[in-house]
Amino acid sequence: MPRLESVLFRHMDAQIETPARTRGVVERAGRFLGLTGWAVDPSHPGRPAEIEVLAGETVIATCRTSLPRPDLGLGEAAAAAGFRLPRTAFQTAVARAQRGKGGVLSLRLAGTGEALHAAVALPSLDELVDAGGDDPPSPVAEPAAAAASPPPVPPPAGVPAPPAASSRPLPTAEPVPPAASSEQPPAGVPASSAMPPPATESVPSVAPPVAPPVALPPSPPSAEAAARDLPAALASLRQLATTLPAATAPPRQAGFIEAFGATTGGPLWLFGWMRPTAGHHFPCRIGEETLHPAGMAIAWQARPDLPEGGVAFTAAVDTAWRPDSETPRPQLLFGPDGADRLECLDTSQWLDEPACATRLAAAAAKLSGRFLRPLQRLAAATNAWAPDGPETAALGLKAHVERLVVVPGFGALVAGWALSPQQPMQPRLLRLGERVLPVLPGSITRTARRDLLENAGGSARLAASAGFTAVFAGPLAPEDAGEAVLKLVTEGGIGCNHRVAPAQLRLLGHSAEIEELLTFYPALEREAWFPDLARAIGAGLRRAAARATLVLLHPAPAAILATIGADRSDAALLLADLALLADRRPDLPPIVLLLGSGETRATALAGFGELQEQVAARGSLFELPDPAQALHALPTVLDALGAERFIFLGPGAFPDAAGWDALLDVLAAPGPAPFSLTLRSGPLDAAAAAGTACFAWRRAECLGWLATQPVPVGGLASGLPALPPNRAAPPPGAGADPGRLVPVGRLARAVNALLFAPETPHG
């Protein structure tokens, strides 16, 4: 006997009992795992061995050894002595033709007829070959295999081995009810818990009492129904989970949760491995300290590193549970008696939405099962990161966003078009940067787009409703206005993603004016969600108005605060008036200019330099994001100056000589009530009556009043807010002339009316 053959037989004798001249061994076998082992052709020990699988006398599959087996100690033969025949290798026409014929499986070296020894009981061909469906059979007991099988292969690194209870008999996925009774407990409830039929009594003279009907828990949806409408099936299973009895048996380890995450408006997603003792869609409970009812559906993948009966899975779980800690560690209980448990590992991760989408996309290529396609559709419909599937192009789905305006604190308004020749398609989710916003119910409006008639394949009916506007609500911050992706979904659950071009995205208050929102909804102020929009606009104005950037500071107890507006002519005229005042009143207090960053800034800086040469007291400069809101920057400006009394000039206010004298007199000895000059006849009567265009007051009283006032759209031109009614009247002949104030628009007036309403509800 050659030296290699002697080594080979010595190794086999040390490992297992084998016939004297066995050339290989089937070491593991199972309906999910397939067949694994090793083989060597002694005639060509350095080459891969050819193996044939037979059912009876018919060859149904072949393979070639290719896996290294250094543990065998066979020298050069070990380099490629291992083999693995996965379950998929048996899904052939030849193998299917042998189903039901009772042929016993065996393996042999091709060309020699020498059999490979089976160290474990081999599954039947019927168990390995699918009958035509997509789901694997649910694991059941294999007594013969269990008796002869070696200890199970350890699970993946970091995954604890399951307990010995894994060999217990397991029920099928969907048990067939006995013919004797048509009312069986739902799947997942032990048959022993079902109510027995009432006993009958042979007492002819007394009718037995009629028991009231017993309401049985709802039955779980069938696999076919669940595959057709998975969201509805998961909701039904979640409801069914509320009726499941509490587990009385100690939990049995049935697998592990390796990662989990959720998507906005979608289910919880789980990734890991398990023994699907309850089938592939079932009620369950999930949580940490408190368990919540849930419905779960899985797609699966056979993996050689898992114990027999175990599969890798990706699952969608409909549940109210979401993590409430930084390191969540949920567990999930399921199974006929609710005692099969999935728990987390120390390495289990909570995935954010992008990571969850990436893992779903990566897993989909390897998964199988009846629910794979429904799970992909569910992911596409609820995940703005999920890539478009092949159905998107096949169905001719097209979409485009033409305008998108972000409203900080509220969400976004979107206008565009969508074409779906076969199924209606609606906007569903909007991703902005890392934020995902759901569409606001009732906000979608469809419009005719006859310019898209050619894109719609000449269908006038399709073009008649191709345009859309929609609102996506969520607490967006200005910095969230990043990359945008719009998710649209058909009624069949097929998703279509559209990446919004940067040129179509605008930010309210920065690159979009409030009146532009009327181009989305012409009757916007009548929409049900308008109050929330108005309050978000008001909150954004308050945040912006409070900002004042210090340019030059000379603290002073009293000061003249003059606002330089956006009109260049008004800016030049105000600076000229201040220069004349300085000539007439050399004892002027410091002049503080409140200027914007627009084209009047250069004019203001030049005029300020000249005033500094005329006025003994050194002035200061502040830059405002919007000079029209200068009134609401007073807290910041006065705190920086340390001023306790002041004169305020809004943009477009020009006191006459008598008005200046009256203001300066009050500044010298101000009282608790404000003193204001009335603007003479001008285009904005409301602004003239408000008194905030030109007044003198004390800091403490002014800031106390101002803290209670909303910030109006349009600033001083809106005529809001009005000074307290106890303000002092100016002396005869004292007043101010108005500048070029721009009236506020219709939507701005509607927002202001809501913000300044006496009892506006805030919520």
Note down, in words, how this protein is organized:
The protein is α+β, with helices and mostly antiparallel strands. 22% of the residues lie in helices and 25% in strands. The chain has 18 helices and 32 strands. A hairpin with a 5-residue loop joins strand 8 and strand 9. The longest helix is centred in the last third of the chain and has 17 residues, at 568-584. The relative contact order is 0.06. Residues 127-226 are annotated as: Disordered. Residues 149-163, 206-221 have a biased composition (Pro residues).
Strand and helix layout:
Elements: H1 3-15, E1 24-30, E2 34-39, E3 50-55, E4 58-64, E5 82-85, H2 93-97, E6 105-109, E7 117-118, H3 125-128, H4 143-148, H5 223-228, H6 230-241, E8 252-262, E9 268-274, E10 281-287, E11 291-301, E12 311-319, E13 331-334, E14 340-351, H7 353-364, H8 372-382, H9 390-394, E15 398-407, E16 411-419, E17 425-432, E18 435-438, E19 445-447, H10 460-463, E20 467-473, E21 484-490, E22 495-500, E23 505-507, H11 530-545, E24 549-552, E25 558-563, H12 568-584, E26 591-595, H13 600-614, E27 620-623, H14 634-641, E28 645-649, E29 653-655, H15 657-668, E30 675-676, H16 685-690, E31 694-698, H17 699-706, E32 736-738, H18 746-755
Parallel strand pairs: 1-7, 8-14, 15-23, 25-26, 25-28, 26-27
Antiparallel strand pairs: 1-2, 2-5, 3-4, 3-6, 8-9, 9-12, 10-11, 10-13, 11-12, 13-14, 15-16, 16-20, 17-18, 17-21, 19-20, 21-22, 24-27, 28-31, 29-32, 30-31
Helix pairs in contact: 11-18, 12-13
